[in-house]
Every structure is written in structure tokens, then in C-alpha cells.
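Forum > Structural Biology > Help requests

Title: Can anyone predict the 3D structure of Diaminopimelate decarboxylase?

Hi all, first post here. I have the sequence for Diaminopimelate decarboxylase but no way to get a structure on my laptop. I'd be grateful if someone could post the C-alpha cells.
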Amino acid sequence: MDFFDYKNNQLHAEDITVKELAAQYGTPCYIYSRKTFERHYLAFAQAATNHKNLVCYAVKANSNIAVLNVLARLGSGFDIVSKGELARVITAGGDASKVVFSGVAKTADEIAFALKLGIKCFNVESVSELDRISHVANELNLVAPISIRVNPDIDAKTHPYISTGLKENKFGIDILTATSVYQYAASLPGLKITGVDCHIGSQLTEIKPFLEALDKVLALIDDLKANGIELSHLDIGGGLGVPYNGEAPPHPSEYVAHITDRLTDYQHLELIFEPGRAIAANAGILVTKVEFIKQNQDKFFAIVDAGMNDMLRPALYQAWQNIVPVTPRNDDTPTYNFDIVGPVCETGDFLGKDRLLALQQGDLLAQRSAGAYGFTMSSNYNSRPRVAEIMVDGEQSHLIRARETVESLWQGEKILP
Ligand SMILES: Cc1ncc(COP(=O)(O)O)c(C=O)c1O
Ligand SMILES: N[C@@H](CCCC[NH3+])C(=O)O
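Reply #1:
Sure, ran it for you. C-alpha cells for Diaminopimelate decarboxylase below:
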């Protein structure tokens, strides 16, 4: 069941037409479906029936407080990468004891904040970070639960900018040196070794790289055990892809089954997942209005009111996301091959290229699969206020983040005396 679908020639978000939502809230706007978030979260949470596990939703994918709250109410844990994300989780009613803290550059202030809140684990990405966490924990007279994020040097076969498990990527600690790093961690005061972590990249559409990485991590776990270091959890990261353009990634239940199948000899290890995109992407759309139609010789442009500052993925990763009319035309409007471009002064400012559509000025378009890494990567470039976010819940809609005002853009700036 898709909660963004056509009924009577109108694109719906759950039980409301997107046209009505656009009229009420204006464009551009992000529209999310609560039911879709819940269904996607449960697809992970209910998958591993025979293995103790925890789903830690990756907050970076979509960090709106209402989204985090919907997931927290279902019992979700959270994967965070900054003090800001952790503060959001707490504000949204999330449970600190189900939070794992990833990221290569945690500051002393961020570590102290997380330690005082009692998070589940720090996923440590360097030896210097171990020293820093140990130091902060000692100063606070607290014990920091840690796992080492290992870099297994596995090709995730994804866009190079979102591959994280190769030795040339900045993430994690070389798995070949991991045992000695664990031994070093065991020698430091204020640390409690609890797990191991591995996240090799995002938008993976095949199971194979996940399993190759898992095999290397399991070999490390065996080696650690032989050296007297026992772990209590295994964090396999996130990264499961979504079908943006005909890709066929495994369903979360299939993905989880492949992993748990390998863990029959490791029943004592709690399994942690950190999915972001697979939960959020198809729970959201970006709605935009055609401001102008323009033709340069044989090239057609639909200039829309959403730009790369609102949705960066096409510009940054040459990402393809489907763009559909909110109310498909059934009149005699001709169909052309349009580039759907935004208002920003950059040639890379496009939502999609070469889209066969019948369009007129004023028409509404929806970019699909926009619930992950859409609003969270938006910016104020060109002094454009960030757009509204709306959550649909059955027949009801809620403004969960108001559109920014132009005046809010220079808050904190000061003219010299
Ligand atoms: C450490 C970590 N965990 C989880 C995720 C979530 O990834 P995805 O949205 O692909 O599931 C990311 C992003 O790639 C990440 O860096
Ligand atoms: N921002 C990326 C995903 C990055 C994942 C974070 N490690 C995207 O939009 O596809």
C-alpha cells in the first residue's frame, strides 16, 4: 500500500489531496505520511523475530521533531551525529538509553552532553577520540560505553560521496588494527567496551557488500574473544537503499533475515540497525509549483519554485528522483521533454532532467522519495527561507515546521557601529 497515490486523477497524501495541502500551506513544501513512517519503522523492528535487536533510526535522514516523536512512540532508538541531533531526540521524547552516537569529530562538549544523558554507546572512529572520551568521562566521574566503528575496506557499490567503508573514506578504524585498538581502549580509564560497529555506505541496493562486511566483523569478534574481550552488541549500521529509479533493494525483512542467518553462533550479541533512508525516503514528497515555462530552441524548461537549496540531492549526487504531476492533465497540453529547474543562480540547480511531462504555468509537481536527506540538507542559499514541513495523518494534516520568514534569515547578524 502506498500512502502517496492517485485517486480520481489527484495525487493523495494518505486521505488528503496534495492539491488541497498545497492550497492550504503554500509551495514549496515537504509533505510526510505518518502511516508510511510507521510502516517502514515496523518493517525493521518486527523483522528479527529470533534475535534480540534494536532499531536506531538515523536522525540525519529526517530530523523533524514530529517525525522523531512518531518513531519514539513506537519504541525506536536513534543514531545521532551531533549534540543538535541528540537534543532533538530528547525534545521529541526519545529515550537516551537507546541512542548511539556516530561521527568522526565529536567535541568534548558533545561527549559530555551525551554522557550526562546516559546514551547507549559512542561509536568511536579514531584512537584520539578514545582518548578524548576517556578524558571527559573521568572528569565527570562517569563511565562511557563504547564500540569501535571499524572500516572493513569493502566497496558498497554506491555513489562515491556516500560510500563510507573503503580505506580511502574518512570513517571508522582500519579493521586490521582493530584488535589492538580494543586492547588500548581496555587500558583506558572511564571506558566500558560494549560493542562493535560498521557502516559501509548509503543507498546500497545489493545484500552482498553488507554480508562481506559482516563476515569481516564476525572474524574480528572471534579474535577479540580469543584476546579476552567480550562484546554485548553488534551494530551493523544503516545503508539499505530505496527504489528511486527501478532499483530493487531487498525488503527490510529480507535484509534482516540475511544478517540474522549469519548470527546463529552469536545469539548473545544484541543486533543494532541504523536505517535512515529506508524509513524516511518514501515517507515524503516535495511539492513545487511551475512558475514559468521557457523554451530555448529545442530545449524546454519548467522553472519551479523549489531549488537546490530545498533539495540538494540531484545537484550533489546526480540523484534521480521521480517527478510527477499533482493533477495529471487530460487536456490538449503538449508533452515535452522538460528540465525541471529551480530559482537558484546555479546551473546545477535542477530537480530533474529530461522528464516527459505535459505542463503549464501554475501546475503543481511532486518530487517523490523526498522524505530522507531532503529538508535536512536544505539551506538558505540565495537568501531563500527554508520551506514548510507538513505531516498527514489519515484525514488530518499538521504543520510540523513553519516556512521560515525572510526576516529570520539575518537573525544574529549585526551592522558595524
Ligand atoms: C553511521 C551512519 N549510520 C547510519 C546512516 C544511515 O544511512 P542510511 O540513510 O543509508 O540508512 C548513516 C548515513 O549513511 C551513517 O553515516
Ligand atoms: N545525504 C546522502 C546520504 C548520506 C548518508 C550519510 N552518511 C543522500 O542524500 O543520499
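Residues 388 and 403 are 4 Å apart (CA to CA). The first helix runs from residue 18 to 25.
Shout if anything looks off.
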